[in-house]
Amino acid sequence: MGLKGEYIVDDTVFISKTHHPGKAPYSIPLTVNKVLFIARNPFDVMISFACFCVCMNHSVKPKFTIHEEYPEWWDKFVKMNCRVMKKFFAQIIKEAESGKYDVCFVRYEDIVSNKQKELERI
């Protein structure tokens, strides 16, 4: 799974697409000088991730509305993932404030709505 070359993390790589290592316990250590952090609206992430968990596929959506058909599961899923996201973003902010490397934060929605402006800013 993953994109072609995603596992290459040596000096030959200029840009590496990855998820935060906290979500991939067996990931290869990655040393960086700069980070481009693209964040999506957490509400969109929650729905997308729930669909992935139900279907185990990024391209398929369930034939039912998860929160309507399984409200108890949805409630637990959202609460659990909010705790995970809170820890994740606290770690990202801590790393960014440490000054170990340059970090540029970008919202996915801003890229979608104004590609040129965001690309120039990056």
What features would you highlight for this structure?
122 residues; mainly alpha; two-stranded parallel sheet; 5 helices; 2 strands; globular
Shape: globular
Order of helices and strands: EHHHEHH
Helix content: 40-55%
The number of helices is: 5
Low-confidence runs: none
Main sheet overview: 2 strands, parallel
Q: What structural class should be given to the helix and strand makeup?
A: mainly alpha
Task: Give the N-to-C terminal Cα separation.
Answer: 28 Å
**Strand residue percentage:** 5-15%
Instruction: Report the average pLDDT across residues.
Output: 85
Question: How does this structure look, described?
Answer:
It is a single chain. 48% of the residues lie in helices and 10% in strands. The protein has 5 helices and 2 strands, in the order βαααβαα. A two-stranded parallel sheet has the order 1-2. It starts with 33 loop residues before the first strand and ends with a helix.
